[in-house]
């Protein structure tokens, strides 16, 4: 079991990038981290979210949360944006190449590119606070450009989370298993009886019937309870 900190970028008074039709980066990535958490936990991993709602967090706070929890891995979820709304593609950002951060970034890149059919914008190095100050392998995922209208319209935060979870599990030599919880089927019957209580004394049951009838319930009856 590994300990994963999943970081939904932006939030609160910082919506992140906003698409032409109003979709906010902060909302998409929050949806994504919840789906990734669900899948990782169902596959035996331990997960902590830096933010679980639409709140603001400074980069130093995000790094502190991961370090204080002694996380094994840190993944920060983002979307990209550019003035040219035709630009598309996926890129990963790490502090420096040649370590486990780059290995994790490669797993993430391969999964995202395969499923998003996205342009490969590579793995880049940058001295961002959440990469520089975290003590574990850390990656920022920039999954596609919300400034691209087609992507804004069709991009799924849930699918984003699924892909990240699958890549994270591959990093620790696991295959994602997600068996949906099926709702039990309603048996076919002509009708159903509603039982409201059990009374040891007939008089108590009769009083309850009268009370329910006074409340407007017409079909109320006292039915003998079978002895064991």
Automatic annotation (TrEMBL):
Q: Which GO terms describe its molecular function?
A: N-acetylmuramoyl-L-alanine amidase activity
Start and end residues of each MurNAc-LAA domain: 63-173
Q: List the GO cellular component terms.
A: outer membrane-bounded periplasmic space
- Top-rank taxon of the source lineage equals Bacteria
Q: What keywords does the record list, in alphabetical order?
A: Hydrolase
Set out the biological process GO terms recorded for this chain's protein. peptidoglycan catabolic process
Gene3D superfamilies (alphabetical): Zn-dependent exopeptidases
The entry's protein name is: N-acetylmuramoyl-L-alanine amidase
**Organism for this UniProt entry:** Clostridium sartagoforme
Recall the taxonomic lineage recorded for the source organism. Bacteria, Bacillati, Bacillota, Clostridia, Eubacteriales
């Amino acid at each position: 079991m590994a300990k994963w900190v999943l970081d939904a970028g932006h939030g609160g008074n910082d919506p992140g990038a906003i698409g032409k039709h109003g979709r906010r980066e902060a909302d998409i990535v929050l949806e994504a981290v919840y789906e990734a958490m669900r899948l990782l936990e169902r596959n035996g991993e331990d997960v902590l979210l830096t933010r679980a709602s639409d709140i603001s967090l400074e980069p130093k706070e995000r790094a502190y949360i991961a370090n204080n929890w002694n996380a094994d891995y840190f993944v920060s979820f983002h979307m990209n944006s550019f003035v040219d709304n035709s630009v598309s593609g996926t890129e990963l950002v790490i502090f420096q190449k040649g370590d486990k951060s780059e290995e994790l970034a490669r797993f993430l890149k391969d999964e995202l590119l395969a499923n998003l059919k996205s342009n490969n914008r590579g793995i880049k190095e940058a001295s961002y606070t959440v990469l520089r100050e975290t003590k574990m392998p850390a990656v920022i995922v920039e999954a596609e450009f919300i400034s691209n209208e087609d992507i804004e319209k069709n991009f799924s935060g849930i699918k984003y989370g699924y892909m990240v979870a699958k890549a994270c599990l591959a990093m620790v030599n696991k295959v994602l298993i997600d068996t949906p919880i099926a709702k039990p089927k309603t048996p076919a019957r002509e009708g159903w009886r509603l039982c409201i209580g059990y009374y040891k004394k007939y008089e108590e049951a009769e009083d309850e019937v009268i009370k329910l009838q006074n409340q407007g319930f017409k079909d109320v009856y006292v039915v003998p309870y079978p002895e064991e």
